[in-house]
Specification:
This protein has two domains: 50 residues, Roll (2,3-Dihydroxybiphenyl 1,2-Dioxygenase, domain 1), CATH 3.10.180; 78 residues, 2,3-Dihydroxybiphenyl 1,2-Dioxygenase, domain 1. The protein has 144 residues and is an alpha+beta fold. Strands 1-4-3-2 form a four-stranded mixed beta sheet, with helices on one face. A four-stranded mixed beta sheet has the order 7-10-9-8. The protein has a two-stranded antiparallel ribbon with strand order 5-6. The protein is built from three helices and ten strands; from the N terminus they run E-H-E-E-E-E-E-E-H-E-E-E-H.
């Protein structure tokens, strides 16, 4: 089956703040937008931020966490699976503006099926993001 782009829409507390974080800092290009939402191109996927004015200017999305490989993984979270070289470059880029990673970039399940680079961080509204990578996506993405 050929992969097709996903579409996901999340809530944010401030549209200009989302534009700065996803557009200026993360480098995602902007598509259609209004004063209430922005479409971003997240590595070929349609990632949309929608204003939730009930959060207020300082509000945050709440998450729970579940243990994975000795870390508390936030739920829900969103992100992209990348090839390993691109992930390493992206990890260096986000390290220039993310001060507090939820889980710093590292390789989990090392030496096991599904070995992967992963990192978790939050946007300013508290939405948790994961970017992960495999050296051989076709063989490792769904490895047991």
């Amino acid at each position: 089956m050929q992969l097709t782009p996903f579409h996901i829409a999340i809530q944010v507390r401030d549209i200009d703040e989302a534009r700065d974080f996803y557009g200026a800092k993360m480098g995602l290009s902007e598509g259609r937008s209004s004063e209430h939402w922005i479409d971003f191109n997240m590595f070929g996927h349609q990632f949309v931020t929608h204003l939730n004015s009930q959060l207020g200017k300082t509000g945050k999305i709440t998450n729970i966490s579940n243990p994975v490989d000795g870390h508390g993984v936030p739920v829900p979270h969103y992100g992209v699976v990348m090839n390993f070289d691109d992930w390493e470059i992206f990890a260096k880029k986000v390290s220039t503006f993310i001060d507090d990673f939820i889980i710093e970039p590292y390789v989990r399940f090392k030496g096991e099926p599904g070995e992967q680079g992963t990192m978790f961080f939050s946007d300013p509204s508290g939405n948790a993001l994961e970017f992960k990578a495999f050296k051989n996506i076709e063989q490792e993405l769904f490895a047991k």
